[in-house]
Here is the input.
Amino acid sequence: MTAIQEWWKTGACAAAVVLAGLGAIAQAQEPYRLPPQEIVDIVDAQPTPWTSASPARDTIALLQRESLPPVSELARPMERLAGLRLDAETNGRHGPRSVVGLSLLDIATGEERPVVLPENVGISNVSWSHDGSKIAMVVTRGDQLSVWVVDVARARARQIIGSGVNAVFSPLSWMPDGETLLVSLVSPQRGPRPVRSRVPDGPVIQEASGQESPVRTYQDLLRDSDDADLFAWLASSQLVLIGADGRNQRRVGEPGLYYSASPAPGGEYILAESIRRPFSFLQPWYRLADQSQVLDLRGRVVAEIAQQPIADSVPIGGVITGRRNIGWQASHPARLVWTEALDGGDPRVEIDQRDSVWALEAPFDGEPREILRTEDRYFGTQFTNIGETGFAVEYDRDTREIRRWLVDFANPDTEPRLVEERNNQDSYADPGDPLTVRNQYGQSVIGVEDGFMYFAGDGATPEGNRPFLRRVSFETFEAEEIWRNSGEVYERVISLVAPNASSFLTSREDPVTPANLYLHSGDGEVALTQFVSPHPQLNAISRRMITYERADGVSLSATLYLPADYVEGDSLPVLVWAYPREYNDAATAGQVRGSPWEFTRISGTSPRFLVTQGYALLENATMPVIGDDPETVNDTFIEQLVMSADAAIDETVALGFGDGERVAIAGHSYGAFMTAHLLAASDRFRAGIARSGAYNRTLTPFGFQSERRTFWAAPEVYFELSPFMHADDINEPLLMIHGALDNNSGTFPIQSERMFAAVKGNGGTARLVMLPYESHGYRGRESVLHVLAESIDWLDRWVKPVEDPRGEDDAEDESDPME
Here is the structure.
């Protein structure tokens, strides 16, 4: 028995009792606080609209947004069921609105036409018809969800369903005719809402049958039969077809727990996928038992395609056995395509071919035909407008190799042709993504025009991203670059206007101007929008990409922000904001990603706000963890973090804006995990800020992030990689912030509560802020402003002063646990 196993067996129980007591020490609820007024003004500024291009390539939808909602919207009653957060009053997802208005921009003329809607509404599920003549959407008013359709030519909206929309899953989709919608309504047969019984029917019982059933740390799961009944009541829906003019509404089949209903490209069938009872108390909705059926337009079952049991025995990182990822072939009127695992769904199995791809076409009563076998895990096919060809993708999780094959689904005996093979993390070699068009069925497919496809990509280079547009031969796959971003702007292609790329749309921004749309053609370029910065007071902030090396020669990079009034040669307090990522080799880990010419967006709880308070910011400072064996890459996690942190701090000194002393480390989620580790293992930082993190890896025993080993296979690794176990080494001030309703897998709120108790119990300096009603990210206005106020105050107290506030003795009496 190892020392770690001995500790686990003999000490864990006692430690849990002690920490349970410590968690109750010195708690107090304080009112929300505000940061400086200049920051409040920036947070409250109206954000620029989101944009969506029409399939017809003649119109842009401008989706108007509002600034942050009040916490009172987050405080609406919430039902946490089967991994979902639902609002029983609306019968949809819980959460505040984000889109509040709509206007239409004509690409040819630049004319913008507002679409009139009722006041104080929220807009969601915005969907273009296949020909671009209409837009369907769900409109929320109070507790009512309704379906509206916009006539694009007239810029007029009309309500076609006034109430009873079920938005627990996907509420609407267009039929291929572009004149009919498939809508999910509340089941008319569901009866009154189930009432939770005060006296239970009996205990909740779970049983293991001797089969491996690794369970991730999912949250918001069903707890008992009352939860199960409420989930079924909310999720049960009736599919209906209704004309875009609001006429001819008719039911499609019987009510069911439908989580997906997708029309066949030809419009004669519907693939209906639904959840089956009994449910599980250990799995989220997408791992519950389900069935896939083909329905005709009257709702009659044409074919049973698959029935899957509860996915409670899927290996970590694996897939279900049997038919999975069932969907329509975009280039055929009625052919289903699915995948089946050849390795039992287990990525640990050594096998020559891991997946097979199958197809079955209407009337679905014949034998399915095997189309393709892949050496590695199959990740889907993107079809083209040439016959029934498509680009199939497979991925090797060990080597991170991605391979893309051109496959003819009409003639599967034809040998697939290799189009792309590279490390998926090799950004410099990324050929980009193919641009799409609509085919004869209204489906989005890769466009091939006169023998050429068009690819748009980020264009990562050692100097930063320079997006491109390339013409690629469909016959030879040879590429020719026809446009690339240049100058002191960041511009990327978002859509073709002409199929042969003689005209195309781009999004252009620079450090002081938000993204605007431009039309490129033979006549030059024309600005279609003139959005201005919502926070012009930040225009003078300095921003640039920097690169440097750590001790083992690995190249690192970061985006450097300096205050508007910075004077060259001055020494500033520095905030390093980072998030660790794993790589197979140093070459890909050292690649530069991002651009110095992007707009200086600042919203939510962005660390960029600290620049307004006199701090230098190293944002997205790379913290690569490199190992050619993905099973053991984390064995040197801490050592590599420390090397990267040392290099970042040394670079601030070399560039002259840092003194190497007044430095803080901060991050969110895995970045918070990193922050706690660096405070425990390094003496280079004065303080840290950790948001929504996980600190005790024994609470995520079946893996975390990229760690594939379980706790029982590698207990020493779980112990060493738990900052909680090193809480006695954290002798720098640590501010921890966490959403009280965090539903992210692994980052239970108790992670921060127990970490705070551990630091406090060992005599450390810490502050824990639990945000009511917030999840993994923070959305409420009061919460966001409070986080900024806390962060500024913490750094002003512990980092900004020239003299270390902890005193000379405390600052110098730190031993390096890495030595």
